[in-house]
Specification:
The complex is a heterodimer. By secondary structure, chain A is α/β, with parallel strands linked by helices. Chain A has one domain: TIM Barrel (Alpha-Beta Barrel), CATH 3.20.20. The longest helix of chain A is centred in the middle third of the chain and has 25 residues. By secondary structure, chain B is of the alpha/beta class. Chain B has 2 domains: about 80 residues, Orthogonal Bundle (Methyltransferase, Methionine Synthase (B12-binding Domains), Chain A, domain 1); about 120 residues, Rossmann fold, CATH 3.40.50.280. The termini of chain B are far apart. The chains are: A alpha/beta, B alpha/beta. At the A-B interface, strand 3, strand 4 and helix 6 of A face helix 4 of B.
């Protein structure tokens, strides 16, 4: 089965030959993997700290290829401190694992920290043709074979709080709502322009995202989400579907977001990512929403992949196919980029179990 | 008097720092004891904020603004509390572990601890084991509270506990941990004394540990 047909079948709530797969990794894990499979690391392309290369993704038999435009592409841009085009300051923070050292890029300067700073603020230009060169190349070379995803994650809230500062943005929701609205509009308009352009270019799915879930509850109340984020997301999705009614929309939020899932379905969401199993029960999600919503992710990156055994990983993959992936509706993968602390045998247990488990699972 | 205390409490509950500041000043001028303002206007209210958070009525923004309002009032009360030698519930040194800059969870725990009458030494983020050890040695903290968001930085909790052992301080201090990937099972595995899934429950655990 062609990769793109496998994804389309699953997203049509039918069972393909096997569950579709999409896996991303940090740059450090990608380097380790490249060495193991002896595939030279190409240009890293995935957003949000991801270190994927199209060579590695195709080698692993992944079914979706991603191309990203937006603020999330600013992760991992320099080894030391740097300022991105939004004026957000970044720095690297090192960590150690049994498999070597790594680093994350974190932000430490917020250009809209002062209340009045927005008056003179100029966001970057989403119409710059350079931004869409990679998407053009990916579509030209791979669309016949693969399901192509245009990525505009950190769509509204995440980029907004990077501009403002996390706690400041959260308190603005409660104490300074007009300013919050103005700040949210900056990334919203930017990423909407990018997502519309990617849709016009012919991507199969747009992936939007904002983390609004903590481990066991939402970060902000459903009421606050409905006031500040739902109307923008509703319009975002509607504008994409007006360009191409067939385009699918996936939404990413870490953590527990049970209360807003019916809202997401109502505004036209097709696919929920990453379904963190330590935060939301995959069986419950499938039972309550599986007829109207598809799922992407679900292999635990907080416990099973880094700290479980290969047998635990195999069991989790099979359990997901049997439950969340029953009658299709699932794209399997880790709930975040595979991190450097993951044993290679766990990684291969995930990949090989997904690719070697045909539907129907017995 | 009761009216003023109630207004302070309402101000904390609603995250209204300006009201809390004004009413605490009025209360002090009216001669209400600082310890009474603290206990009846703030500590009991922050306990209620914590309860509402646990029950899913309050979320991070509501908790943040309540805590900030409480801190505004507490700033005014502190000189009076010191003067009348009011003892804190206990002393907590708190930080996000080495390699990890994620601090909103840690900040919420620190604020809720403060709101429960603890003296809080906030070591910030990216805190090395040595810094935790120095905090125990220098401040006499009874509790170390460590936070981690990342699976790659969780092991720093173990190295910090080992550093406390090596410095001969492990028996003097209770260690509590929290953060998205942290579980009770992990706390037991690395020899921590407690785990809490959220800021409110971190306070309950800290209280039970200092009373033990």
């Amino acid at each position: 089965m062609k990769h793109r047909d496998r994804v389309l079948t699953a997203l049509s709530h039918e069972t393909p030959d096997r569950c579709p797969m999409q896996v991303s990794f940090t740059p450090e894990f990608a380097a380790r993997l490249s060495q193991e499979v002896e595939i030279g690391a190409g240009k890293l392309h995935n957003p949000h700290g991801g270190g994927n290369t199209y060579e590695l993704e195709r080698h692993l038999d992944e079914d979706m290829l991603l191309t990203s435009v937006g603020w999330a592409n600013w992760y991992y841009q320099e080894a030391d401190s740097y300022l991105d085009e939004w004026g957000i300051g970044w720095r690297s923070v090192a960590y150690d694992t049994p498999y070597g050292p790594g680093r994350y890029t974190e932000f430490d300067h917020h250009p809209l920290a002062e209340d009045g700073a927005i008056e003179n603020y100029q966001p970057p230009d989403p119409t710059n043709p350079e931004l869409y060169k990679e998407a053009e190349w990916v579509l030209q070379n791979f669309k016949d074979e693969y399901w192509i995803v245009g990525v505009t994650v950190t769509t509204i809230f995440e980029c907004a709080w990077a501009l403002r500062g996390y706690e400041r943005m959260l308190t603005d929701f409660a104490l300074n709502p007009d300013l919050a609205e103005r700040i949210l509009d900056l990334p919203y308009h930017y990423h909407l322009a990018a997502a519309k352009k990617l849709t016009q270019m012919g991507v199969d799915m747009i992936w939007i995202g904002d983390d609004v879930g903590a481990q066991h509850a939402m970060l902000i109340s459903p009421k606050m989400w409905r006031r500040f984020l739902k109307p923008r997301m509703a319009n975002f999705i509607a504008e994409l579907k007006a360009i191409n009614p067939q385009v699918k929309v996936a939404y990413h939020s870490d953590g527990c977001i049970y209360p807003i899932i019916p809202d997401l379905i109502e505004i036209g969401l097709d696919v929920l990512n990453p379904v963190q199993p330590a935060s939301m029960d995959p069986v419950r999600l499938k039972r309550e929403y599986g007829d109207r919503l598809c799922f992407w992710g679900s292999i635990d990156e907080q416990h099973t992949l880094p700290f479980g055994s290969a047998a635990d990983v195999r069991a989790e993959v099979r359990s997901r196919i049997e439950t969340l992936g029953k009658h299709g509706g699932l794209i399997l993968g880790p709930t975040h980029h595979v991190q450097l602390d993951t044993p290679m045998e766990n990684f291969w247990a995930m990949i090989n179990t997904i690719t070697a488990t045909p539907y129907p699972i017995t | 008097m009761k009216q003023l205390i109630q207004e302070i409490s309402d101000g904390v509950m609603n995250g209204d720092a300006a009201t809390v500041t004004a009413k605490v000043q009025q209360a002090l001028q009216a001669g209400i004891e600082a310890s009474r303002i603290l206990n009846e206007g703030m500590i009991s209210t922050m306990a209620e904020v914590g309860r509402l958070f646990e029950e899913g009525e309050y979320f991070v923004p509501e908790m943040l603004i309540s805590a900030r309002a409480m801190q505004a009032g507490l700033g005014l009360l502190k000189p009076y509390l010191v003067e009348s030698n009011i003892q804190s519930t206990g002393k907590v040194a708190i930080g996000t572990v080495k390699g990890d800059l994620h601090d909103i969870g840690k900040n919420l725990v620190a604020m809720m601890m403060e709101g429960a009458g603890f003296e809080v030494i906030d070591l910030g983020n990216d805190v090395s084991p040595d810094k935790f050890v120095a905090a125990v040695r220098d401040s006499g903290a009874q509790i170390i509270a460590m936070s981690a968001l990342l699976t790659t930085t969780m092991p720093a909790m173990t190295t910090t506990i080992q550093a406390l052992q090596a410095a001969g301080l492990r028996d003097q201090v209770k260690v509590i941990i929290g953060g998205a990937p942290i579980t009770q099972e992990y706390a037991e595995k690395i020899g921590a004394d407690g785990f809490a899934p959220d800021a409110s429950r971190a306070v309950s655990i800290a209280k039970s540990l200092v009373q033990a």
